[in-house]
Amino acid sequence: MRWFEITIYTREEAIEMISNAFHEMGAGGVSIEESGTLNKERDTSYGQWYEKPLNDIPEGEAVIKAYFAEPEDLDALVEQLKQFVVMLRDEIEIDPGRADIETREVDEEDWATAWKQYYKPLRISDRLTIKPTWEEYTPEHPDELILELDPGMAFGTGTHPTTSLCLRTLELTIRPGVDVIDVGTGSGVLAIAAAKLGANRVLALDLDPVAVSSARENVKLNDLDNRITVAESDLLGVLRDENLAREGRLGVKLPVELVVANILAEIILLFVSDVYEALQPGGTYIASGIYKNKEEAVEEGLLAAGFTIEAKHRDQDWIAFVAKKA
Questions:
Q1: Strand 318-325 relative to strand 307-315: parallel, antiparallel, unpaired?
Q2: Cα–Cα distance between 158 and 318 in angstroms, integer?
Q3: Which of 181, 182, 202, 241 sits between 20 and 30 A of 190, alpha carbons compared?
Q4: Quick one: CA torsion of 173, 256, 151, 8, rounded to 10 degrees?
Q5: Cα(160)–Cα(317) distance, integer angstroms
Q6: Which CATH number belongs to the domain containing residue 160 in this structure?
């Protein structure tokens, strides 16, 4: 099969938005390479180690590549990407950088497996470690929780600051025995972490059928089929199906004690009230994936919905909110 690669040279703060746009355009896969310079600030608070830089991408910049299977009109895809970049800069106020775009034809093998050589076991915290299924890893202590992961074409390998930040926030917040909803689960890494950290039941939701398939496979890899239910849903839309809830097919008992969402700030603001309704009184909402220029807007949205802000956790320019229902 012939595949076409579209490459855009952008900035790290635009990674989430552009990657999501590529998926919505129908990309069969998306790869992200960030700055590998020695000047890049790295979190080593839990003894994480980082390999020597593998690229010469300038500090703060990123290269995103998307792969399309024999598109009918490659020029139309490029034009769609250009229009999205303009919207990103002018309406959402996220700097996409120089946003240069290149295209080329590639073999399937070039992108389907080559990225695996860069994905190594990642120590997220003193307790949480993400391990690719094809890598060997020996836990450093008996209490270490290993998250087996094959991200496939979905988001959420743990390497991006928003994912690792959300995982650490989840670890600090979760209580054993709670029911959890993970909105925008991607590879399922947050749902898997919640279960391993003591959650009773987890409902993992994603709109993308590719992500749903990936999450289900990762749940099986971690032997958590009996505690995690993965479903296709537009945000919390599936909760409005009373038959599913009544029949117990959602897995969790509504309302739940904890909702976690590691998605874009613009999306978080769309369903704040739905999260409030899905939570028990005193329940907790972890909202992550928020870039610094959207911090004030998200805080205002949470407060307007009736939440109180319990804490904010930061990693580089990204913020995770911990909000409590009254």
A1: antiparallel
A2: 14
A3: 241
A4: -80
A5: 12
A6: 3.40.50.150
Last residue of a domain, one of 52, 82, 117: 117
Number of domains within the chain: 2
pLDDT of residue 26: 81
Q: For residue 63, is it left (φ>0), alpha (ψ between -120 and 50) or beta?
A: beta
Residue 324 CA to residue 44 CA, distance in Å, equals 30
Distance of alpha carbon 310 from alpha carbon 325, whole angstroms? 10
Residue that finishes a domain, picked among 53, 85, 117: 117
- 3-state secondary structure (DSSP) of residue 183: strand
Q: Is the CB of residue 128 less than 8 Å from the CB of residue 145? A: yes
Tokens representing 245?
């809830």
- Confidence category of residue 52, pLDDT binned at 50, 70, 90: very low
Per mean pLDDT, which range of 5-9, 66-70, 258-262 is the poorest?
A: 66-70
pLDDT digits (tens, 9 = 90+) for 232-242: 999 999 998 87
Query: How many beta carbons lie within 10 A of that of residue 255, not counting itself?
Result: 17
The pLDDT mean for the chain works out to 86
Judged by phi (left if over 0) then psi (alpha if -120 to 50, else beta), residue 45 lies in: alpha
Measured in whole angstroms, the distance separating CA 135 from the mean position of its chain's CA atoms is 21
